[in-house]
């Protein structure tokens, strides 16, 4: 049975949509595209801003000729609480109680105001039950007000949400297809306002963290330093980025201190993980998000973190229709990682 679903990623700078068709031959790309998020609207609660987001989403849907209104909606890490919890091996019933306790400790708002869910990502086998091996559980909580806000947008956009999912889960789905066999990987999603981290070990999420800085901070620094308008600063950032030999390294010099703050947070995340999982070392980094296209970013990160760094290709598991389209998609790969993963979910 052929069935189509949209993945919808509402970022602070861009709204991204991907439509995938489920066929007996696998997933087929039906449509994709992005549109600028109305300024300041992505986090706003006001009805007018919600309507603006819905209108922009409708406009994009029309432009790219989507054929369904069934959608999997991405929830930014900044509006959800996610955590990988490690516990002694226990039964499902015990786990339920433990998770409720965990939720009370960890969520800063009353439990009646959130929906939470969890999934066991690693349960040691019976043989290792007596050892120190722990089970790990991926825990997510979303404030009811957040869900209501997204439901309002969906209603105005005449979309039918079939699921909500945190962006990191979508990324893991679209970017680490090798599952169990792949080396432990740090996925970094560098967007406009935020940078999200997620370590995937043996196909499972083992660590998550969200950093409140991203590509916009780099543009702002350029605008401030050189007295540019933001649009011009964006252009300079996109042209020269972290390249040392361009424009006498002037742009690199300006953005490096801001970028290094993000790198420092990534280092801290890696260190935290390493301390808690001394036998599991992260072997590579996969980059995605719009800022993954920053010139020189791959070399810079590889040097700073001493790890192999690759650009993520979420289209890997998707059939593209024509070689021309495949070539075009390559250029946009990092931007659509979340939306592809969302559309793949159903
Ligand atoms: N070629 C490029 N070089 C450098 N940066 C780029 C390039 N193209 C896009 N960007 C940056 O990517 C960011 C937008 O990426 P993306 O769409 O992933 O963010 P978002 O999802 O809207 O934001 P967030 O996830 O933080 O809410 C902007 O800061 C933009 O300047
Ligand atoms: Mg984003």
From TrEMBL:
Cited SUPFAM superfamilies: Actin-like ATPase domain (SSF53067)
Alphabetical list of InterPro entries matching this protein: ATPase_NBD (IPR043129), FtsA/MreB (IPR050696), PilM (IPR005883)
Pfam families assigned to the protein according to its UniProt record, in alphabetical order: PilM_2
Protein name per Swiss-Prot or TrEMBL: Type IV pilus assembly protein PilM
Natural source organism: candidate division CPR3 bacterium GW2011_GWF2_35_18
Source taxonomy: Bacteria, Bacteria division CPR3
């Amino acid at each position: 049975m052929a069935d189509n679903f949209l993945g919808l990623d509402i970022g602070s700078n861009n709204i991204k949509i991907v439509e995938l068709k489920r066929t007996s031959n696998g997933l087929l790309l039906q449509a994709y595209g992005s549109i600028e998020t109305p300024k300041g609207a992505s986090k706003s609660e006001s009805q007018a801003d919600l309507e603006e987001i819905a209108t922009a989403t409708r406009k994009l849907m029309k432009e790219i000729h989507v054929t369904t209104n069934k959608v999997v909606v991405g929830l930014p890490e900044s509006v959800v609480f996610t955590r990988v919890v490690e516990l002694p091996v226990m039964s499902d019933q015990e786990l339920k109680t433990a998770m409720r306790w965990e939720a009370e400790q960890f969520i800063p708002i009353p439990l009646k105001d959130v929906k939470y869910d969890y999934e066991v990502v690693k349960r040691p086998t019976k043989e290792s039950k007596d050892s120190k091996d722990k089970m790990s559980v991926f825990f997510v909580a979303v404030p009811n007000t957040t869900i209501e806000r997204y439901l309002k947008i969906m209603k105005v956009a005449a979309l039918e949400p079939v699921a909500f999912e945190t962006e990191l889960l979508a990324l893991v789905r679209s970017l680490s297809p090798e599952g169990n066999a792949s080396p432990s990987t740090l996925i970094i999603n560098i967007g406009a306002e935020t940078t999200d981290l997620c370590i995937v070990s043996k196909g499972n999420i083992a660590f998550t963290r969200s950093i409140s800085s991203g590509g916009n901070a780099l543009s702002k620094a350029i605008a401030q330093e050189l007295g540019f308008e933001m649009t011009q600063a964006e252009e300079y950032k996109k042209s020269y980025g972290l390249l040392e030999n361009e424009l006498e390294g002037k742009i690199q010099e300006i953005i490096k201190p801001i970028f290094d703050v993000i790198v420092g947070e990534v280092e801290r995340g890696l260190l935290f993980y390493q301390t808690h999982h001394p036998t599991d070392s992260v072997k590579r980094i996969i980059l995605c998000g719009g800022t993954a296209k920053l010139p020189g970013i791959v070399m810079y990160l590889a040097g700073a973190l001493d790890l192999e760094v690759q650009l993520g290709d979420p289209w890997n598991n998707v059939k593209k229709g024509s070689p021309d389209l495949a070539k075009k998609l390559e250029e946009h790969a990092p931007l659509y990682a979340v939306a592809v993963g969302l559309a793949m979910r159903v």
